[in-house]
Amino acid sequence: MSAPRSHTYTHFKVTFPVPFVAHVEIDRTSKLNTFTRPMWIEFGVVFAHLSHDPDVRAVVLSGAGEKAFCAGLDVKAAAGETTLGEEGGEVGRKANGLKRLIYEFQEGISQMEVCEKPVICVMHGISLGLAMDIACAADIRFAAQDTQLSVKEVDIGMAADIGTLARLPKIVGSASWVKDVCLSARTFSAEEALRVGFVSRVLQSKGEAVEKAIEMAAVLAEKSPIAVQGTKELLNHARDHTVAENLRYTAIWNAAMVQSEDFKKGLLGAMSKRKPTFEKL
Predict the structure, then answer these.
(1) For position 229, which CATH number holds?
(2) Computed from CA positions of residues 52, 56, 62, 66, in that sequence, does the dihedral angle turn out positive or negative?
(3) CA dist., res. 233 & res. 237, Å (int)
(4) 262 and 251, same structural domain?
(5) Which of 13, 97, 129, 270 is the most buried (most CB within 10 A)?
């Protein structure tokens, strides 16, 4: 299913700045791009559409406005939309309802991770709580110099539950640093995020970071979509499986994929020193 070019989302702007690249902006600037339940549901819809759109080969995610990439969950709105604000009730049934709600939230954000296309996340300004969950689900992370990040959940009396605690230890090699920021909820800078490997680039401003992300996405979009999407799939599989399991999966994957026209075009292009063009997938 392709995302119609004329489609307008309620909480996100989706534009196509260069061929085969989609730019998704979180668009709730009046509330510092904090999320409500309709937003996390729509977030999943956006990335499910982009995943299957043959005219999209790479995605950039950023936050609209200058103050915040995302300031987390809009707790006040969420309490009114869900059972978070309810008192009393039988504990087992209330817990079951909350479990379903958390699963729904997790699945919405995880749609970015399972999106077939590589996603470059650009953070700037306030990037707290849910911002970390979202960034952890991206493939590549850039940050503006002014980015202030925090795994904020312990400060509101809970453990982070939308993906940071599952993904951050697999992104950053230092367990000590991960526990440092997750247990303390302290704010850390873009430069610190770069030092530990959470982000791969820090740029002077949000504008420059978005520009560089779109440039990188354009480079990815010129490559074979079979090769790029296969590489994302195999890297994510490697993260969650043993070396032996991943080698076996890779062999099975490529037994099919190296028979594609893209592989032939890639080989011929390398030999002739001419950049090949690839068909939509």
Answers:
(1) 1.10.12.10
(2) negative
(3) 6
(4) yes
(5) 129
Report the pLDDT averaged over residues 82-104. Answer: 81
pLDDT of residue 2: 40
Pair 45, 182 in one domain: yes
Write the CB contacts of 237 (distance below 8 Å, at least 6 apart in sequence).
245, 246, 249
Q: What is the rounded distance in angstroms from the CA atom of residue 128 to the CA atom of residue 118?
A: 23
CA Rg value for the chain: 20
Q: How far is CA 278 from CA 16, 57, 149, 221, 267, in A?
A: 19, 11, 39, 10, 13
Question: Mean pLDDT over residues 51-77, rounded?
Answer: 95
Please count the residues of the chain.
Answer: 281
pTM over 0.90: yes
